Structures are given as structure tokens and as C-alpha cells.
Amino acid sequence: MSITTRQALEQLALTRRVSLASLSKMLGRNTAYVQQYITRGTPAVLAEDDRRRLADFFGVDASVLGSSSNAHSTSEVVPVQRIQVEASAGYGSVADADISGASYSFDRKWIQSVCSSNIDFLSIIRVRGDSMTPTLVDGDDILVDRSPAACKVRDGIFVFRWDDTLMVKRLAPAPTSRTCTISSDNPAYPTWPNCAVDDIDLVGRVVWVGRRLR
């Protein structure tokens, strides 16, 4: 009976007594990357570079770990996880635990043209409320970059936790102090100046928005 690519990778790791976390680190991914690939099917296919690096590491032909992503198509589809919480573009809503929902599929090259961060740091979150209208409207799905580089206060739109409340607002740091201005694009909502940066728990920076035409 033939085995799947995931089973082959798992068997290679067990035979060599190599942890899945260490394989993930070797690929420059987060420590759960290989385990999620094997047990959850995320990503759906290994990136070409990852497939070849793993094959070289184990000393096997790359075909053992699947066919080339270029064999049938010039594009590679990658999943971006949707987080089952909603960022309030209003006065805020209590942020429940981040529970992963269904994933959205994107072309890798397109994603990389939007954001240079590793795919594993990207999430889709839904917007609720009208405080960021017209930039973001109720029901929009936003692509959030949660990488360490993105989670630094600078000019832009961010998702953040503030006193256990999940919000999406525009941040503008002060040039000479550890404070920033939190504002809404909808002028009907107040602006909060001189907010301590250290009190803001950044979830990530908004890099793209998708919506249904109304």
C-alpha cells in the first residue's frame, strides 16, 4: 500500500529521531509548521524550497515528499487561517480566545506581493462596526500581519487589544515620546491622543481588505 507524502515525512523524522519542531526551525518556519502539515494538512502542499531542503536533509529523492509545485501549475496556493474573533471598528468588543476557523486560499506570489512576512504570521479577521468607515466597513475581511516586525507602533491601521477589548484603529506615534494617537477614519468617533504605547497589545498590522460589493 502506498503512503502519502505526509506519512513519508513523518516516517523519515521518526527513523532519524528528528523532532518536527527542529525540522520547522531548519526551514525558518514557526515550530509547529511541520506538525501542522502532517496532522492538519496545513499547508496543503509543501513549498518547493521546503520540499527540496527536507529531501536534501534526509538524503532522499525530492519526489518522496511530493511532486514539484511547478509540475502541473505555475502557481502555488497557500492557506491563510481565519481567526474566529471580530475586530471592532466601533467602541470595542471583548476579545475571546483566538480560535482558528476555516482557512482562505491565496496564490503565494500574490500574497508575497501584498506582504513580505512569512505566511504563518498572516491571519484573516472580520471587521464589525463603522468607526473606520470609509476605509473599513462592517463585514470586511482584513488580512493581518502578526509578524514581530509588523507589531511595532507606526503610522498605519492595526488590530490591537486594549483592556481586553479587540479593536481596529489607525495609530500615529508621537515623534518624541512613547505615546501615540488612536483615531477612527469616521469623524463621528472620538480621537484618543497621548495613549501609552506600552499599554497597547498589538495583534498585527492590517495590510489588505476584502469585501462584498453592496
Describe this structure in words.
- This protein has 214 residues and is α+β, with helices and mostly antiparallel strands.
- It has 2 domains: 5-65, 434 Repressor (Amino-terminal Domain) (Orthogonal Bundle), CATH 1.10.260; 78-210, Umud Fragment, subunit A.
- It is built from 5 helices and 10 strands.
- Strands 1, 2, 3, 4, 5, 6, 7, 8, 9 and 10 form a 10-stranded mixed sheet that branches.
- Strand 6 and strand 7 form a beta hairpin.
- The longest helix is centred in the N-terminal third of the chain and has 12 residues, at 5-16.
- It is elongated, with a radius of gyration of 20 Å.
- The model is unreliable at 69-74 and 92-97 (pLDDT under 50).
Q: Quickly count the domains.
A: 2
Shape field = elongated
Mean pLDDT: 84
CATH superfamily of the largest domain: Umud Fragment, subunit A
Number of helices: 5
